[in-house]
Design a protein that fits this description.
Rossmann fold, 4-stranded parallel beta sheet, about 325 residues, binds iron/sulfur cluster, flat, alpha/beta, 3 domains, 5-stranded mixed beta sheet
Length: about 325
């Protein structure tokens, strides 16, 4: 696997960071999609720094997903995200910017934008480098193009994070469409749920550029609403609290449990803590007799994991609104802070 071909892992910067700080044992970790690169990165860093380089075997879903404390390492290098969580140990984030060019796909975006004049641009961090070229191209076709300042969990203008679309949300009233550059569907769906204007998704890996179907966001919102009604008749509720550093929201689970205890007088409401929410975790909750999950952890469980969970999932931050103002429930992705 050629380390240089697709992503910029900034190994020189990483090496300098390790040697200049004198770390002798370093843990490297990454987003799930970058895991196959880690053995080779570990070898290169071990050679260049003479330090011991350990590999974290679990793909990390976000910069939120970092261990509380380290075992057998003094520092962490985290590839694939930008950081937003204070850690109790030294940690270096490397965004691993993708080197794929999108120039060949821009004409299709321009074609889709016929009739749209004011466009907001954003991207996942891996593709943040594509935004300035895309902006120039669209402006050369007479479009007014805007890139919003980073939100609470992002670092670069135009950067979206799974639970932070603020950079695009802030522009929503000024544009008539949004374009997002990202792989997979995760970020484009998150954006479509968070803004009111239509969204074009440009995928640099496949070259596809297409409108995100409104029906996709509508379906997710219908399922969210239905989970709320299931909550009202639940007999055993699992309020799930995340334990990884950036998903801990102390107080949310507790206050939701208090509210549910008041509202659902015949239900049992338990707080369940977990670090990793695998399919087995949700299955285990069902086997324990729970009939609904209220998640106070990653806000995307409710929008992305409802179809892999055998139990309906409801978002903890929506519970108050659901009981007091069900008709005005938010439909966006909640910003975890
Ligand atoms: S909380 Fe969820 S969406 Fe936000 S960064 Fe972590 S994994 Fe991504």
């Amino acid at each position: 696997m050629d380390l240089e071909a697709r992503y910029d892992f900034e190994l020189e910067r990483v090496s300098n960071w390790i040697t200049s700080n004198g770390y002798s044992k370093v843990l490297i970790q990454s987003a799930p999609g970058l895991l196959p690169y880690l053995p080779k990165i570990a070898k290169e860093l071990a050679n260049s720094t003479k330090s011991e380089v350990l590999i974290d075997g679990r793909g990390r879903y976000g910069a939120c997903d970092i261990p509380h404390s380290l075992v057998g390492a003094e520092a962490v290098v985290h590839f694939g995200h930008t950081g937003f969580v204070p850690a109790e140990y030294p940690i270096l984030y490397v965004p691993a910017i993708c080197k794929l060019e999108i120039d060949d796909y821009i004409p299709r975006v321009i074609e889709l934008l016929i009739g749209k004049d004011k466009v907001g641009l954003c991207a996942s961090v891996q593709h943040i480098n594509t935004l300035s070229g895309l902006k120039q191209e669209l402006e050369s076709k007479g479009k007014k193009v805007m890139i919003g300042p980073p939100g609470k969990r992002a670092q670069f203008p135009g950067q979206v994070v799974g639970c932070d679309y603020l950079c695009a949300m802030r522009l929503d009233s000024e544009v008539d469409s949004h374009v997002i550059v990202a792989g997979g569907e995760f970020h484009s769906i998150g954006l479509a749920l968070s803004v009111s204007k239509p969204v074009i998704h440009l995928n640099p890996y496949t070259g596809d550029a297409k409108w995100v179907e409104k029906s996709v966001a509508d379906k997710i919102n219908r399922i969210r609403g239905y989970a709320g009604y299931q909550l009202m008749s639940s007999k055993k509720v699992a309020v799930v609290e995340g334990l990884v550093s950036g998903q801990r929201t102390p107080g949310v689970a507790k206050s939701v449990r208090e509210l549910l205890n008041r509202k659902l007088t015949r239900a049992t409401v338990d707080i369940i803590q977990a670090e990793n929410f695998s399919d087995d975790f949700f299955l285990g909750l069902k086997e324990l007799g729970y009939d609904i999950v209220v998640t106070a952890a990653c806000t995307r469980f409710v929008t992305d994991d409802y179809d892999r969970s055998p139990l309906p999932i409801f978002e903890a931050r929506e519970v108050h609104r659901f009981f007091y103002d069900a008709l005005n429930m938010s439909r966006g992705v909640f910003i975890l802070q």
